[in-house]
Write a structure and sequence with these properties.
The protein is α/β, with parallel strands linked by helices. The chain has a single domain, classed as Glycerol-3-phosphate (1)-acyltransferase (3-Layer(aba) Sandwich). The protein has 8 helices and 7 strands, in the order H-H-E-E-H-E-H-E-H-E-H-E-H-E-H. The protein has a 7-stranded mixed sheet with strand order 1-7-6-2-5-3-4, with helices on both faces. Helix 1 packs antiparallel against helix 2 and helix 1 crosses helix 4. The two termini are 22 Å apart.
Length: 249
């Protein structure tokens, strides 16, 4: 138990120092450089730095499904607070994420995320959020970046995969961008949503083939959403079945 506690102290200290240093660097640079694609390497380094401290091995498959230089709307199942670091550090696509409005208040990190192009949404004010999302996503697309979305909306859940929200699929259709589904297995076991202590666990990240949205219209948004959710759900079941499990842990 003492070993686990000490390991967790190290993890939190490691991540905190990374947030302070890289967040501070992003904020400093933002006073001089407004082009958000400039921060791509720093953001990727932020994710990779955090992963160095995680207790377990991360395996990534399906990178051949990513076309270099292509922008996507990336979607993934949401299992834990470490998901962000995994995607930023392991998926070789320059991306920004949609984040809850509350994160803007986070010390240093919130300001750094805001100035480097992350999109904050206010779930309590849907109209204002959609307007802000459209404006911000237009800027990302102009600079050749991808948008990362957790369509479940929250990691706090009791089921394998919660119902999806429509926002990501509407954005993909309206901007004629393919959807890149990513499936995560293991983060929930490593750090469950209501827990503070990390457990040593291996993590698998599978990148599925992209879904072309060119033939979809706004009226088809729910069909697209269900298609993508079924892809992630079926693949997640296969990943757990490979471990001899028939139910989600």
């Amino acid at each position: 138990m003492l070993k686990k506690v000490l390991r967790n102290i190290y993890i939190y200290l490691h991540v905190y120092l990374g947030n302070v240093f890289l967040g501070g660097l992003l904020i400093l640079c933002s006073f001089f450089i407004r082009r958000i694609s400039f921060y791509n390497r720093m953001i990727s380094a932020w994710g990779k730095w955090a992963l160095l401290a995680l207790p377990g091995t991360v395996r990534v498959r399906g990178l051949e499904n990513i076309e270099a230089g292509r922008s996507y709307v990336i979607i993934a199942n949401h299992e834990s607070s470490v998901d962000i670091f995994l995607l930023l550090g392991k998926i070789p696509v320059p991306m920004r994420m949609m984040a809850k409005e509350e994160l803007k208040k986070t010390f240093i990190l919130g300001m750094a995320m805001q100035r480097s192009g992350f999109i904050f949404v206010d779930n309590k004010n849907r109209g204002r959020s959609i307007e802000h999302l459209n404006r911000s996503f237009g800027q990302l697309k102009k600079e050749g970046l991808s948008l990362m979305v957790f369509p479940e909306g929250s990691r706090y859940k009791n089921e394998m995969l919660s119902p999806f929200r429509l926002g990501a699929f509407v954005m993909a259709i309206q901007n004629d961008l393919p959807i890149l589904p990513v499936v995560l297995k293991g983060p929930r076991k490593m750090l469950p949503p209501h827990k503070r202590l990390f457990t040593k666990t291996d993590i698998d990240i599978d990148v599925l083939p992209p879904v072309d949205t060119a033939s979809y219209t706004y009226e088809d948004r729910r069909e697209l959403m269900h298609k993508c959710r079924n892809m992630i759900r079926d693949h997640l079941k296969e990943m757990h079945a490979a471990d001899g499990r028939t139910e989600y842990p």
